[in-house]
Request: fold
Amino acid sequence: MKNLEERNFEISIEPYIGDLSIVSDYLDGFKFQTLTQIAPYKNNNIWTALSLHGFGQEPSDIFKPGFVNEDIQIDHELQWTTLCNDPVMKSIREIIFKLPCKFERIRFMKLAAGKSLRKHNDNIDPDIENKKIVRIHIPLRTNKDVVFTMYENDDDDDGEKLNLKTGHFYYLDVTKPHSVSNNSTIDRYHLVVDCYVNEELKAIL
Reply:
């Protein structure tokens, strides 16, 4: 895998060049689930998600066992949600199966228009922390006013500012500090694929 210092976040998979606006427009009609387990974004609609593959068959089943309040019922078997077979998701299936790996959770992540996520680490999941799983981002709806910033460490105040491109594949080591700003007037959508690491996937990271 590349080190952060190499400054190369896009991975060598041919980008998806088809029209993804149909998917984004379709997602606009859904009520996304709030990512309640991560402060300071609890109980708001800044950062939300829908599940395509995860621990449950409903799109609202975005969580992983062991990382939510005990009163939330979660299936312990990975499965495709009811969204997967929707005809609108044809392009999404094409994107996903470009990745040479088995999948853990696959989610649509929305960052609301005009909102930001301050510097943080996605270090709540030990499988990601120990690199058993890596997180791949594919922007579905974005623009020049959406900025993803990767930092070398907690003391780095400047970071590397990235303007990620629609349909391209990015490995972003989310155990390192990062922030996101959506300075546009439209909601930003990423397809976020958690991949079990194997030798074929390592070769392109």
